[in-house]
Write a structure and sequence with these properties.
By secondary structure, the protein is mostly helical. The chain has 10 helices and no strands. The chain is elongated and about 60 Å long. The relative contact order is 0.11.
């Protein structure tokens, strides 16, 4: 039986651990672990060190020597694993956001209808980022400093959010659904960005009611969106009360 979202182990995003944790260090002398395991250990520590450093001083001011110091890994090893600072950023961003989307999809799948799936997915996203402020700062705010590769990674990230709109209820809209989805996703991302940029990442879960309403209202109308938000346990019927056509 698949575990429910409440029993899932916490995500370990890049930057949530310290790279210099003694328990993660590789002891000197003959090693009993494979070269692949050694490389994986060093890569994880470098990603942690990278994310923490970027969150502290910004991407532009981050130096490879700073990353290595934070990770407890030598500079030659860094260049064995990454082509440079940009490559490390993209690796941390891709790995971390993949974990976040996996958790969102898990929460989304356990809800009974589209409105409750919206709330569940957004709730998972906000809660995860609130618990990983260094990763949130790196992935959401500092991505602007990376240049074209960062912008491309952000566009890929935003495109993935469209998957959460594939099960929209069949409601007639005055504009193309794709255009409205992109507008809604952009608004959600902007609200999250502003809270993180203001160093208020821990407050992200407070955005859930407003963001859920902003996602639901363009498709359902404000009254039905409000009804969906105040319904603590939406029924399993694919057309719950808040989506029932008005008489």
């Amino acid at each position: 039986m698949a575990a429910s979202p409440s029993t899932q182990p916490p995500l370990v995003l890049p930057g949530t651990r310290t790279g210099r944790d003694p328990e993660r260090s590789l002891r000197r002398g003959p090693r009993r672990i494979s070269a692949e395991a050694v490389a994986a250990n060093q890569r994880d520590r470098l990603l942690d060190g990278f994310v923490r450093t970027v969150a502290q001083v910004g991407y532009a001011r981050t130096r490879v020597s700073d990353i290595c110091k934070a990770a407890g890994v030598t500079r030659p090893v860094f260049y064995e694993l990454f082509e440079g600072k940009e490559d490390a950023f993209l690796a941390a961003h891709h790995y971390g956001t993949s974990l976040v989307f996996g958790a969102m999809e898990e929460a989304h799948a356990h809800a009974s209808d589209w409105p409750s799936r919206v709330r569940a997915g957004l709730g998972a996203l906000l809660g995860i980022l609130a618990e990983a402020p260094a990763f949130a700062a790196m992935a959401i705010v500092e991505i602007d400093a990376v240049g074209p590769a960062g912008r491309e990674a952000r566009e890929e990230l935003l495109a993935r959010f469209r998957d959460f709109f594939t099960d929209l209820p069949e409601i007639e809209l005055p504009i193309r659904t794709e255009e409205l989805v992109d507008t809604v996703v952009g608004g959600v991302y902007s609200a999250i960005y502003r809270r993180i940029a203001a160093d208020r990442t821990a407050e992200l879960p407070d955005l859930l009611p407003g963001l859920a309403f902003s996602v639901l209202a363009p498709f359902l109308g404000p009254e039905r969106a409000t009804a969906c938000l105040t319904d603590p346990a939406p029924p399993a019927n694919p057309l719950p009360a808040c989506l029932t056509p008005e008489t």
